[in-house]
Design a protein that fits this description.
Elements (H helix, E strand, L loop, with lengths): L1 H7 L11 H26 L4 H24 L8 H42 L5 H4 L5 H11 L5 H8 L2 H34 L1 H16 L1 H39 L4 H12 L5 H14 L3 H31 L3 H15 L3 H26 L2
Helix pairs in contact: 3-8, 4-8, 9-10, 10-11, 10-12, 10-13, 10-15, 11-12, 12-13, 14-15
Keywords: Membrane, Transmembrane, Transmembrane helix
Membrane topology: Multi-pass membrane protein
Family: Belongs to the autoinducer-2 exporter (AI-2E) (TC 2.A.86) family.
Length: about 375
C-alpha cells in the first residue's frame, strides 16, 4: 500500500540534462541572437540621430590632438567638466560665427537685390552689354531678351507665373529642414562634449572590443581609419579653407561682386575634389557679365593655379601620406562617400577605403609569405 502511494505521487520523470558541449553551444547561439536583436533595435531607435553621432565622432577624432594638448596644459579636475565644455563651445563658435557673418553680409546685400527686383518690375531688365559682344547668336539672344525681359511688365509677368501654393510649400519644407538641422547640430555638440570628457575611456574600450572580436588586425584597422580621418580633415577641410581664403582675396582685387560670399562658397566647394572649379567659373562669369574680361581671365588663371597645386601636390601628400592610400582610391572614396552619405561621406569614404586597403595588403603580403 505504501509503495503504491509512493508510486502514485512520485514526480514525473525529468528530461536528462544536456551534455556540456551542447549546452554551451546553445547558450552561445542564444547570446549572439540576443546581441544582434538588441543591436538592430538600438540602431532603429537611434536611426534619426546616427548622422549627428557620426559627426560628433568625426569631430572628436579630428580635434583630439588639440584637445589632448590642452588637457596636458590644463589638467582636468575631479569632475572633468570645464575643459570639455570650453572645447565644445569653441567648436560651436567655429561653426556658428561664419554663418552669422555670412547672414549679416547677405542681409546687407539683400537691399541691392530688392532694389534690382523693384527696378526690374517697374522698367524691365535691360539687355546686358555682354550679350551684344557674343561671338555667335548675339542678335538672336538680344532680341529674345528684349521681347521677354526688357519691357516694363516683364517682372510682373514672371511673378504671375509663380504658383503661390508651391512657394509656400517650399518655404515650409525649408523651415522644417532648418529646424531639423539645428536640432541635429545641438545633439552633435552634446555628444561631442561626452566624447571629449570620456574620450580615453571610450578609446580603450573600443580597442579591447576590437582585439576580442578581430584580434590584432581589428586594432590595426581601427587605427588606420582614425588616421584616415585625420588625413582627410587636413587634406580636404584645411586645404579647402585655404583655397577659399586665397581665391577670396583674388575675387576682391579683381572686382568680383560679393567676394566674401563667393570666397566662402569656394571654400566649401573646394572640400570636394573639382568642386572649386564651379565657384571659379561663377566668379569669372560675373566678371564677364560686367564686361571685365581681363579680370575674368585673371580669376580663371589664378583659380586654375591654386586648385592645381592643391589637388595635385598638397592633398595627395596630406591624405595619402597619412593613410598610405593611393590618391585614386582617396578620390573614389571621397566621391562615392559624398554620393552615398552626402557631406559626411567626405570622411567616411576615405576611412572605409583605407581600412579595405589595409586588409588587402595584409592578405596579399601573407599570401606571398606563405608561397613557396
Amino acid at each position: 500500500m505504501d509503495q503504491t502511494l509512493r508510486t502514485d505521487h512520485a514526480p514525473p520523470d525529468r528530461a536528462p540534462p544536456l551534455p556540456p558541449v551542447e549546452k554551451a553551444r546553445g547558450q552561445g547561439i542564444a547570446r549572439v541572437a540576443l546581441v544582434l536583436a538588441l543591436s538592430a533595435l538600438g540602431l532603429w531607435i537611434l536611426s534619426g540621430f546616427l548622422p549627428a553621432l557620426a559627426w560628433a565622432v568625426v569631430l572628436a577624432i579630428a580635434l583630439w590632438p588639440l584637445y589632448a594638448r590642452a588637457e596636458r596644459r590644463f589638467p582636468p579636475g575631479g569632475h572633468n567638466v570645464v575643459l570639455p565644455l570650453v572645447a565644445t563651445l569653441l567648436v560651436a563658435l567655429v561653426f556658428l560665427a561664419p554663418l552669422v557673418i555670412l547672414g549679416v553680409q547677405a542681409a546687407r546685400e539683400a537691399h541691392d537685390v530688392l532694389d534690382f527686383v523693384r527696378t526690374a518690375e517697374k522698367d524691365g531688365v535691360p539687355v546686358p552689354d555682354v550679350i551684344n559682344h557674343l561671338p555667335y547668336g548675339a542678335a538672336q539672344a538680344s532680341a529674345w531678351w528684349s521681347a521677354n525681359l526688357s519691357h516694363p511688365d516683364a517682372g510682373s509677368d514672371l511673378l504671375r507665373k509663380l504658383d503661390n501654393d508651391s512657394v509656400i510649400g517650399v518655404s515650409r519644407n525649408v523651415g522644417k529642414e532648418v529646424v531639423h538641422r539645428v536640432v541635429l547640430f545641438g545633439f552633435s555638440l552634446v555628444a561631442l562634449f561626452f566624447l571629449f570628457r570620456d574620450g580615453r575611456t571610450i578609446r580603450d574600450q573600443v580597442l579591447v572590443a576590437c582585439n576580442r572580436l578581430f584580434g590584432p588586425r581589428g586594432e590595426r584597422v581601427g587605427r588606420q581609419m582614425v588616421a584616415s580621418v585625420h588625413g582627410t580633415v587636413d587634406g580636404l577641410v584645411l586645404v579647402g579653407l585655404g583655397e577659399g581664403v586665397v581665391l577670396g582675396i583674388v575675387y576682391y582685387f579683381a572686382g568680383v561682386p560679393h567676394p566674401v560670399l563667393l570666397g566662402a562658397f569656394t571654400a566649401v566647394a573646394a572640400m570636394i575634389p573639382f568642386g572649386a572649379a564651379l565657384a571659379i567659373a561663377i566668379a569669372a562669369l560675373l566678371l564677364v557679365a560686367a564686361s571685365s574680361v581681363k579680370a575674368a581671365v585673371i580669376v580663371a588663371v589664378a583659380g586654375f593655379v591654386v586648385t592645381f597645386v592643391a589637388d595635385h601636390f598638397v592633398r595627395p601628400a596630406l591624405i595619402g601620406g597619412t593613410t598610405k592610400l593611393p590618391f585614386l582610391w582617396v578620390l573614389l572614396g571621397i566621391l562615392g562617400g559624398v554620393e552615398t552619405f552626402h557631406l559626411l561621406g567626405l570622411f567616411l569614404g576615405p576611412a572605409v577605403m583605407a581600412a579595405l586597403m589595409l586588409l588587402w595588403r595584409e592578405f596579399t603580403v601573407g599570401a606571398d609569405a606563405k608561397a613557396p
